[in-house]
Amino acid sequence: VMGMAQDGLENHKQAVKHYKKALESGGKDAYILYNLGVAQSKLNKVEDAAKTLKKCTKANPEFAACWYGWGIMQLSRGKTGDAKKAAAKLKKLDPAMADQLKQQMK
To answer: How high is the pLDDT of residue 11?
Structure first.
């Protein structure tokens, strides 16, 4: 909750600390991982965000936003092949989100 509050205040550095603390406290929730990954990306910590969002896809393989976020991070890292894998998974989960990711690839 504190991480989301800090994110809402655009204080992403503090949000990252709170999300990490929640995970260290035993939270493995995909939503915590997703929010952490998004906050990391807002701080331009692309490598960290990519790793976190990949963990999110493993924590909940049906969570479309995690796949989208991971795909975007892969694009920003120049890993188009991985972004295409994310789009393929998204096509099954959320076709509109898959289309959005594909648009980013152009």
So the answer is: 62
Residue 10 is predicted with a pLDDT of 60
Distance CA 33, CA 27 (A): 9
- 1/12 Cα distance (integer angstroms): 13
- Give the Cα-Cα-Cα angle 32, 34, 40 (nearest 5 degrees): 100
Where the chain has pLDDT below 70, the residues are 1-11, 27-28
Cβ–Cβ contacts within 10 Å for residue 58, how many?
10
Residue corresponding to tokens 């980013």: 104
What counts of helices (H) and strands (E) characterise the chain?
7, 0
Residue 50 and residue 77 in contact, taking contact as beta carbons nearer than 8 Å: yes
Q: 82: which 2 tokens? A: 């991985």
Neighbours of 67 (CB within 10 A): 29
